[in-house]
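Supplementary Methods. Inverse-folding protocol.

Structures were first reduced to a discrete structure-token string of length 207. This string, shown here, constituted the complete conditioning input.
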């Protein structure tokens, strides 16, 4: 249920400890918004786009009946929590057999910035997510493309952008305690919710 403010533990949990309800966004949001936020704390982000690819077997009737809600909620949270001026989300349900582990791609267009600083910020954020989702990892090295002003990138519906394009490739493997390892999308939601609840409980105990 979409009740309360959006919450991604590594990004904004501390600001929401007093809330009665928080909205855990989506599996794609929990995986990718930390990467957008990692870039936005270094440079102003104009546009961020995420593609979440999950195993078809891990998508239940609730997910299938709410694809539009998934994309709308994730896109909005990319802006509200991730810090992007504009956000876009795409979900792919892959029917491959054997089922594939959750993979996420994050494209961020920002103002020109120090690439080493952005990469360090992304790696630091990934380590923070790993604290409660051990199967969360960068699949490969962060990629950068400089987009010059005389050859801007056109994003349909959003206009032309120049600056720096950052590409992040993620993999989320489930712990396989109960759900299969390929269902990282389910694991990251339950793990994020558990981390949030534990921190809120600790805050209540400490008064």
């Amino acid at each position: 249920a979409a009740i309360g403010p959006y919450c991604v533990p590594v990004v904004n949990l501390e600001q929401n400890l007093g809330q009665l309800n928080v909205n855990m966004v989506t599996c794609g949001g929990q995986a990718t918004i930390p990467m957008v936020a990692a870039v936005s704390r270094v440079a102003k982000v104009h546009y961020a786009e995420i593609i979440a690819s999950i195993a078809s077997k891990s998508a239940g009737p609730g997910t299938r009946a709410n694809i539009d809600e998934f994309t709308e909620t994730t896109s909005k949270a990319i802006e509200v929590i991730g810090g992007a001026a504009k956000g876009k989300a795409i979900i792919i349900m892959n029917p491959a057999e054997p089922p594939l582990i959750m993979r996420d791609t994050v494209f961020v267009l920002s103002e020109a910035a120090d690439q080493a600083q952005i990469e360090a910020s992304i790696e630091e954020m990934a380590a923070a997510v790993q604290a409660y989702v051990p199967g969360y990892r960068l699949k490969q090295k962060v990629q950068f493309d400089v987009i010059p002003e005389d050859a801007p990138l056109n994003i349909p519906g959003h206009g032309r952008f120049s600056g720096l394009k950052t590409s992040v490739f993620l993999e989320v493997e489930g712990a396989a305690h109960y759900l299969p390892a390929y269902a990282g999308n389910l694991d990251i939601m339950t793990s994020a919710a558990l981390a949030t609840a534990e921190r809120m409980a600790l805050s209540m105990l400490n008064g």
